[in-house]
Amino acid sequence: MITPKEMTPREAWHRYLDGRRTELTDESVATYHYRLKLFTEWCEESDIETVSELNGWVLDQFESSRSGEGVAATTLHNEMETLAQFIEYLERIEAVDDGLSDRVNIPDIPDDEKSRETKLETGRALSLIRYYRSSELAGSRNHALLEVAWHTGARLGGIRALDLRDFDVGEQLLEFVHRPSTDTPLKNKRHGERVVAIRNGVAKALRQYIQSERSDKHDDHGRQPLFSSLQDRPSTNTMRAWMYTATFPCVHGPCPHGHDSETCEFRSHTHASKCPSSRAPHHVRTGSITWHQDRGVPREVTSERVNASQEVIDRYYDKATKRERMELRRRPHLEKLEIQ
User: Fold this and answer.
1) CATH fold for domain 122-292
2) pTM above 0.70?
3) Average pLDDT, integer, range 249-254
């Protein structure tokens, strides 16, 4: 039997991920898998045969290699953060020297890089929702999906996990439940479970969707998904494509990019993500959380609604500009400073 120090980087990579599968969602495992795959392959190309050969210089060389490939600052930050967690695991099993994880440099993300993160802007979101509510598209799948995503700030996996029974029509509530044994885990597992109240307009859109457009289907586990495909519960990729189409700017106006909506290739289900103005579920979540903050919803209330800590919200999701923070959050309190 080999000792921990004799493991190859590839063996250690697989052992590390195998040990974390019970605590991570499949999506998170896939993300970690990809990031550490890059490091493992770099080690193999650099003739690093065992993890005992890892040291501060090796880790610095890997970072320089990735940086030299022109990856985005946010990408490099995330990759090195995952690598540091992997090295901490190797320390714990005594495969590398104690303190090696402290030598992993996790580069800061410049403020200008952070501010570039795409979101569905509040003005666009509200214009889309108002149009959906007053047009022939009221109660369509795209309408209901956008209403739920924008008003709850939920992750794509959480929305996909909703069953028909999780919508309380009378009380106007949506309940997010962790059901890993039937293929709908929540990112934060039991800690991700919550009940979220919704406004009349959102509930009306859902009622219309259920009555007119929702496919009455069961998934492979006998459950009735709230958002169903023609077959069963849609995949995350399918729902992601739905969100792209739901946020097309040409839904309620002329194309800002000069395309003809009748012939535009982006209107195709498979090319919807290529539209410069369409938005992914994560972008809708980011915009929603920023909107919650701008509307003066207490931070702790927003945190519970969207199932994210206040620290995570501040760091990753709240994308208001400095001017927006002043105008929408601080200026309304200015009268409190008036000297009588």
Assistant:
1) hpI Integrase; Chain A (1.10.443)
2) no
3) 87
